[in-house]
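Late entry, evening session. Most of the bench is empty. Finally got around to the prediction I had been postponing all week. Sequence below, unchanged from the version circulated by S.P.
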Amino acid sequence: MPDSTRSLPGEIPLPRRRLPRKPGVKHISLALQGGGSHGAFTWGVMHRLISEPRLYIDGLSGTSAGAMNAVVFADGFIGGSRQGAIDALARFWGRIADLNWLPRSLARGMPGISDGWQVDSDPMFMMFDLATRLFAPTQLNPLNLNPLKRVLAELVDFERLRRRTDVKLFVTASNVRTCKSRLFRTGELTPDVLLASACLPLMFKAIEIDGEHYWDGGYLGNPAIHPLINECASSDVVIVQINPLYRSDVPVTMRDILNRINEMTFNASLVREMFGIATVSSLIESGALEDERYTTVRFHQISAETELAGYGALSKLNAERAFLQHLHDLGYETADRWIAETFDRIGWESSVDVLEKFV
């Protein structure tokens, strides 16, 4: 398989006309961003979506935590239909909570130190963050231990999953040597592929697959949109976004600056890809581009930017069970409102203005 997921301009279908509403179940594809423990928000979103009998998920593209959500979800669905997917995600995030190795300090709850779910000023998290900037992963973790590999191997039947090439799964990782993204499809998925997609270079050694080394897919595809457009039956793509695009204020403290750099870095690939889609879309709408290869695609977004933006970058390392459950509940409630407000528009029109949101 080629090492790059970049596609030719002619391979990106874009909106040309509205289609009539169709009765019954509506099909969607999901684009799942990565973001550490904030991926529990996506867990809640997926729980609500799969619980909705009027919706069917055709394909999933994910990066980092989004990739893990996608694979665990799909394997659970194969084994036990909708309830199987719900139970699989609950087991996975329960195991993540069991692995919580970075406790909050004894000063938890003291004003200015560890308020609510904000841990950017918590001494324990600050010390770990500083250590990752002073020491290489080979020094911090010389044995290259990652308990997530065991969790994934125990919870997901990868051999069964790889045989189901009809299940549309797309996982992105970033090639360290070539600076190109690598798209792994269902038949290639292993625990190492998921670890590669979630490999933060300041915390873990690059993951080697087929002689190449990979870091977190968020640097080059968070997540990849084009496979959902080109390889899935649904013409409605739902982006589950957990890295805020917009902030009302300009960061001034060093912590806030680093946090915003993190957000911009992990949104850059999505913004770039959506900019390309919006550019071609505007050419089609103006009549400057006519090509029968283009078909209708509609975009939707589920996010809680205001709430997630308030937690800070270090909260993505917080795997407290209560925090993960809080994020799940936030995701579930957000998706519930989205269904109530948007369901009638699925299959008919986009509910997010791509030009306004990403350009």
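Two things to note before I forget:
The chain is about 45% helix and 15% strand.
The mean pLDDT is 85.
Will write this up properly tomorrow.
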